[in-house]
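Its record is retained below.
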Amino acid sequence: MPVRKTILLSILICCLVACERDETDRPLTLQGIFIGDTEISLDGTITTDLPTDRSITLVFSAPVSEASADDNAIVLSTSSGDMVDNEQSFLPNYNTVVIFPSGILSSNTTYTLTLSDRLRGVNGEHFIQQQVSFKTAAKDLEIISIQFGGIDIGAASRITDVPLDLSLTINFSVPVNEGSLANAASVAGSDVSALNFSLSNNNQTVNINSSLPLRDLNKYQFTLSSSLSGSQGESFSGFSRIFYTTIDPTPDFPLISDEELLTKVQQQTFKYFWDFAHPVSGMARERNTSGNIITSGGSGFGIMALIVGIERNFITRQQGLDHMDKILDFLETADRFHGVWPHWIDGNTGDVIPFSANDNGGDLVETSFLIQGLLTFRQYLDGNIVAENSLIDRINALWETVEWDWYTREGQEVLYWHWSPDKLWTMNHQIKGYNEALITYFLAAGSPTHSIGASVYHEGWASNGGIVNNKNFYGTTLPLGYDFGGPLFFAHYSFLGLDPRTLQDTYANYWTQNVNHSLINHAYSEVNPKNFVGYSDANWGITASDNHQGYSAHSPTNDLGVITPTAALSSFPYTPDESMKALKFFYYTLGDRLWGPYGFYDAFNITEGWTANSYLAIDQGPIIVMIENHRTGLLWDLFMSAPEVQVAVDKLGFTR
């Protein structure tokens, strides 16, 4: 072979050998690690807040030998040295290895990925051992399920009937830091004792109990604040739910007979008109916080309650007569407007107190409630006794100076509610039925001095039959008025004296009207279409009263969750069984929450966790009077015995 060819061949062989040696000696390097879309630092810094449920992707400088990787050359472990089982997959170019841990990684945990020097490239490239560490994100501590008294509440809109021995079981997504429980958990509401805690299920289940029983039919709020944490520092966003306890059947007060209970309620309620009567005028204060503001209509109810007080021996007859003397002294000099008293009067001076900006004069409806009481008391008096006959004459003088006809506003076929010397007829409120003011038209028709004609009743009050309803509600026909009957006081105020038992005109039988109105009100509470807490066949009665927001004329079409005791109790003549259930519920079940110095407080709302601390004369008076009418018919008999009432019955076309 020529020397030149030999040299060239040698050079070629050397080049090939060199090239092969360069390829083998080139190192295999790690170019990147990704967990999900997040790239991991390779400079020794620990990358944090990484997801726990993503695969780990390794990108190399050259294709990796799968055989070398299978020899535990790629190991994932925790900081404590525990191995993490995984599967490895090679993408087609073998430059990329994907690691799939078996199950999700632990939260808030540091992991180390070790790549040993046994790892090789497919062409034998060597790898220098490398370790990379990263830390997973702290997972949120979440509630998986929660049970109140063994009942899983799920997505329940309202949690009711929770046992009084409070027991909560909460399952969490991760173990709970036991030390954070005491400050994070609380129950707000009355009579809450300390909470006890126990943990199970690797601290992922927390059981909470109250040291003492909760109060029945009460609103509470259970809260877990954001200070609660997981055992690995997992954060908690907080949790709060309102719940209501069940009924405790144990009576709050000693059991007594039904008759004793009725008497007790009458006597305690009577104290509002006796113990709390205005000291100067003897009249009834508007409410227990009214100071010198007395109410004309509520005082009429109180005058009728005086009769009950005498008959039930709460006071002596002489005490009652002396009290009436004081009231008449006041009424004879108090402000009147064409014989009509205002709604509110200063109990010291007799001066009108405006009920509203334009209502600073006579109030015909409130005056009719007052006259109803005065006439009933007049009929109770004995004209053969000089002192009592004097009271009769004084009552007649007041009654005969009420100018009912003036309030037709220059002879219109309707009565107007208000008039004042400076506002005149600005209130412009016609008295049209059906509402609480039937008694106003009766007295106006029966007045011996300022009466109205029958046409005012038929065209004004009855709107020529416009008051008729005759629709069916809960299987009961309502003869008159608004759908569902309106506030239940419509069945009470006019009928404290006006006896509906046999009263009928061309529009309705008034016993049927009031019974059916009461039954519909009861049925509405039992059906409870708005799902308020506590409504039942025993806890019912919707009418005008105070509420958690102020005051409103509550009814089935204006239901705020407020039960007012006067509604059911003043319906005793119409619904004796349903009203007795309500009375026992108010007295024995709600007990001292609702029972106070002047009988039952004005109203309550279990859904809102609210009970009034107020008393209103117009709500307390009908309780005493209508319970008495249920028991003896006393006030009905007295009022209906007045000859002026028979005049009105005949004039307006009633039968009785």
